[in-house]
Structure formats: C-alpha cells, structure tokens
Amino acid sequence: MKSLVLYFLILGLGIGWFLAIAVPSWIFHVEGKPSFLCCAIEYGFSSICHQIPERSFWIWGHPLAVCARCTGIYAGFLLAILLFPFLKRSVFRMSSSTILILAFLPSVCEFSSAHGGILVSNNFIRFLVGIPLGIGLGWLFLTGVFENKTKRKRQCQ
Amino acid sequence: MPMTENRSKLIPALMGGSVIAIGSSVPGLNWANCLCCLWVLVGGGLAVYSYQRGLPKKKGVSPQDAFILGIMVGLFGTLFDTFLSYLFRETFGIDTLQQILSQFKGRWGAFSEEFETSIKMMEGLGPWIVIWELISGFIVNSIFSVIGALVTAKILREKRK
Asked: How far apart are CA B44 and CA B46, in angstroms?
C-alpha cells in the first residue's frame, strides 16, 4: 500500500514537472501578456537549462521553459515512471552502470559530434537523444526507490 | 526499525553541495549542467559515494539514506551556489534585475508596458529575488541530487554484492 502511494506520488510529480515547462507559454496564450508567474517558472528552470529559444520547442507562439534536449529527458523520465509497473521484471536485466552508460551515450555522441562539426543537429534530434537519458535515469531512480521493498516482499513470501 | 544509518551525513552532503556550487557557478564549467543538470547529479552521487566509504563492507547505502543525503546536498548546494553567485555579482558589478530583464527580453520579445513597470517595482525588493532564487534552487537541486544519490546508491549496492 505504501509503495502504491509512493508510486503515485512520483507519478504526480513527474506529470506536474513535465506540464510545468509549458505553463508560461499557456499563460501568455491565455492572458496575452507575460506575468510574474511566467517569469517565476522560467527563472526557476533557468538554473538547469540554457533556455535558448532557437533550441526550444515552441508552443502557442512561445518557447517552452526548457530546451528540446531537456524536454526529451523529462518525457523519457515520465515514460519510465508510466511503464515501470508493467516492465518491472521483463526488461532491463543489465547492470545499473550499463544502463547508465547506454542512457548517456546517445546524448554524449550527439553533443560531441554537433560541437565537433560532424553532425548538424536540430531540435528533433536533441529531443530524441534526450529520451533514452530520461528513461535510463528514471528507471534507475525507480528501481533504486522500490528495490528494498520488492526484496522484503520476496523474503516474506 | 530505523532504516537510516547513524553515521554522519553532514560531511558527504557538504562535499556534494560544494560540487554543485562550484560546477554551477564557475563560467565554463557550468555548461555541463545543460546535460541533465550533470553537476547536481554528480553532487548527489559523490555524497553517496563518500558516505558509503565509511560503512562496513557489504553494506550498501539504503534508498532512505540516499534520499536524505540528496535533500541535504540540494540544500547545501543551493546555499553555496547562491553565495558564490552573489560574490560573482558583487565582484563583477552585475545587476541582478538587469540580468533577469535581459534574460526574459530574449525569450518574450518586447515587454508590455505594465510588465516592465511591475518588474521595476521589484527594484526595491532586492532580497525577494534572492529568496526566490533560494526556493527555486532548493526545489530543483534537491530533485536532481536525490536522483543522482539514488542512482549511485543502486550502482554501488550492485558492486558490493
């Protein structure tokens, strides 16, 4: 029961976090002008993202509060939370360090090749490479949170 | 039964917080935060790693301990980061309000008149900007350092088996 509450709490936070990146654009769309809330949310996200408008997806005529890569990471994280109860024992049997390396690999490759002039990246690519990073971190985070609980349950059985 | 260890978490958390502050404030180093808040994740991870070094062999850091460490790292990281940013601003004479204004001007285009007026009203409320910086910084840093701490704790538990 406790695990279920914890899971839904994490799910709620994940959904809230993902929706928060679109709130400033939505407020501007509804009110027709920026407000303090827009600034407060965008300023909050500014410590974790460069927020360059050209590197962000636009919605309702305004950039999201974070860049395309961060949007992909958050989407992946949310996807991991949503799929966690269904995929628990059937997939990701690799070690945690392997999952972490595989999760970071696409982003690192894209980042270094774009900065090395090998690949011309765009927002869609940045979004796509962000998804595995979000899924990997989300998966490790959730298995880390629920690991002991599952073990104890198994020991009781 | 208590799930947390008695070993002090203060020193590991201070170490993790310092990593966040230095990584996030020093120009050139802070680009790594563009990759999923890397310095914040590393700060949380480092705290768990140094905490685990003092534990008996085969005993990993529990998720509860990792969670507490992550929150502590987030708190110290925010405090140190705000202090370091304040030092940078004072040293180089950066105007916080102008910095915020130019940041949003780039994102929102031309300001509406009332918006600019209301922003200017904040000039007399300097400390509130710092308070908001502390609150939002604490929320964001705690979330990411908890993720970093839990992921590192899981990896280290696997390695100890």
From this structure: 6
* DSSP H/E element including A59: strand A58-59
Nearest to A95 among B37, B103, B158 (CB): B158
Contacts of A109 in chain B (CB under 8 A): none
pTM recorded for the entire structure: 0.80
ipTM above 0.90? Answer: no
Q: Tell me the pLDDT tens digit for each residue of B34-75.
A: 666 788 889 999 999 999 887 777 677 888 888 999 999 999
User: B45 in a domain, yes or no?
Assistant: yes
- DSSP string of A17-36, one letter each residue: HHHHTTHHHHHHHHHSS--H
CB hemisphere CA count around A75 (13 angstroms): 15
State the residue for tokens 């300097």. B126
- Put simply, the answer to whether B34 touches A49 (Cβ < 8 Å) is yes
Distance in Å, alpha carbon of A156 to nearest chain B alpha carbon: 16
Indicate the number of domains in chain B. Answer: 1
Evaluate whether residue B4 is within a structural domain.
no
Contact B17, B75 (CB under 8 A): yes
Q: What is the pLDDT of residues B29-45, one digit of tens each?
A: 766 666 667 888 899 99
Q: Which domain holds residue B115?
A: 10-160
- Residue at B1 is within a domain: no
B140 contact A CB<8A: yes
Q: Is residue B2 part of a domain?
A: no
pLDDT (tens digit per residue) in B69-110: 999 999 999 999 888 877 777 777 666 666 666 666 666 665
